[in-house]
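Attaching the record inline, Q. Sequence:
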Amino acid sequence: QVQLVESGGGLVQAGGSLRLSCAASIRAFSSYGMGWFRQAPGKEREFVAAIDWTGGSTYYGDSVKGRFTISRDNTKNTMHLQMNSLKPEDTAIYYCAAVGKLFATPGRGADEYAYWGQGTQVTASS
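Structure, as predicted:
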């Protein structure tokens, strides 16, 4: 059974930083592309960042490029999202997700991801 658990969310002032973590209970974690999405109240789920199974290729949404960094540690079955220079518009629930197919390049569409965590709240106050 696949389980993804996010942690590290919280309240921070605008301009501050947070580091999110995703702990994965998934066989062959190192074979799955992974991603982060977020959803603010009243808005659709938005792509934030993705990383391929090796960690060698990363992808970012335009709104976070240059501020957020995605990474993974395949020896610990974990993924991280370092968020710097946070803005009030970054406020949302952040979700960790795993692509549904082994060795598939992670994309920007939520429907490409088969496994999801429960989410962690990030609030950046102005």
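DSSP finds no helices and eleven strands in the chain. The longest strand covers residues 18-25.

More tomorrow.
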